[in-house]
Automatic annotation (TrEMBL):
The keyword ATP-binding applies. Keywords: ATP-binding, Nucleotide-binding, Transport. GO terms for molecular function: ATP binding; ATP hydrolysis activity; transmembrane transporter activity. GO terms for cellular component: membrane protein complex; plasma membrane. InterPro entries: AAA+_ATPase, ABC_transporter-like_ATP-bd, ABC_transporter-like_CS, ABC_transpr_LolD-like, MacB-like_ATP-bd, P-loop_NTPase. Residues 19-256 form the ABC transporter domain. It comes from the Bacteria. Gene3D superfamilies: P-loop containing nucleotide triphosphate hydrolases. This is Putative ABC transport system ATP-binding protein.
Length: 260
């Protein structure tokens, strides 16, 4: 069943740009400790698209995600969410934008230990003073397989279940874009596959927009496209990736040096 009709995402049409980096550079430190983590990166993430970001360790994947999500400042160039230039926002506006328009799934799940699974899932909406759409919430909770666990606290859940709470939390508020950093990093392969299948489905049927950093070619194969970074630059892009094709591309980084 398609959920698109029942749960239209109203914010912007599919195909509109959900996030964009334009000649974005990020430099950490100065003098001998200076590191150019991102070197004039230009890339777009369209609404209703699932993009994986891959590349060798230290290539700038997390930095790109953090700059686009307003968690880190840019040194030059621009990062936008929709039409909003993040550098033009003050701290409070930035906090509000992250709260209202962006969902996050990090490897450290950042669940609050004193709250139940359900309270963790609805926390961002509670803080924003928004009432969850019960029908939508039920669907998200059911799809991530948490229906019988909603009154449990994080310490009473397995790592995989905690990760699913974190994903449900990101999806429940129906943000314009979800940034996920190694969302399957702590899961066994079966739980990981379930989670990725769910993310894929939320993009296909619900026009959710997802940007996911991963090292795993199998995880990347669930995306619509893969962006490859090396030494802080976008060096390649692959549409309709397969795990084998992604693995082959990653091997070329190892075999021929980082920018091959
Ligand atoms: N806060 C920081 N201060 C100084 N240098 C940093 C900081 N954060 C990242 N870097 C450097 O910027 C570069 C890019 O780091 P980033 O974490 O974005 O890479 P990555 O591709 O996500 O790596 P990994 O796959 O290992 O997680 C690296 O050389 C890293 O050492």
């Amino acid at each position: 069943m398609s959920h698109a009709a029942a749960f239209p995402l109203a914010q912007a049409p599919t195909g509109a740009v959900a996030a964009r980096a334009t000649e974005l550079s990020k430099v950490y430190g100065q003098g001998e400790t200076r590191v150019t983590a991102l070197d004039s990166v230009s890339v777009e993430f369209r609404r209703g698209e699932f993009t994986a970001i891959m590349g060798p360790s230290g290539s700038g994947k997390s930095t790109l995600m953090h700059c686009l999500a307003g968690l880190d400042s840019v040194s030059s160039g621009s990062a936008r969410i929709g039409d909003v230039e993040l550098a033009s926002l003050g701290d409070r506006q930035l906090t509000r934008l992250r709260r209202d328009r962006i969902g996050f799934v990090f490897q450290a799940f950042n669940l609050l230990p004193t709250l139940t699974a359900l309270e963790n899932i609805t926390l961002p909406m509670d803080i924003a003073g928004r009432k969850p759409d019960q029908q939508w919430l039920d669907m998200v909770v059911g799809t991530v397989g948490l229906s019988g666990r909603l009154t449990h606290r994080p310490s009473q859940l397995s790592g995989g279940q905690q990760q699913r709470v974190a994903v449900a939390r990101a999806l429940a508020a129906r943000p314009e874009i979800i940034f996920a950093d190694e969302p399957t990093g702590n899961l066994d392969s079966r739980s990981g596959a379930e989670l990725l299948g769910f993310l894929h489905e939320s993009v296909r049927a619900l026009q959710q927009t997802i940007v996911m950093v991963t090292h795993d070619p199998v995880a990347a194969s669930y995306a619509d496209r893969v962006i490859f970074l090396a030494d802080g630059r976008v060096v390649d892009e692959m549409r309709e990736p397969t795990a084998d094709a992604v693995l082959d591309r990653m091997k070329r980084f190892d075999a021929k040096g980082r920018t091959s």
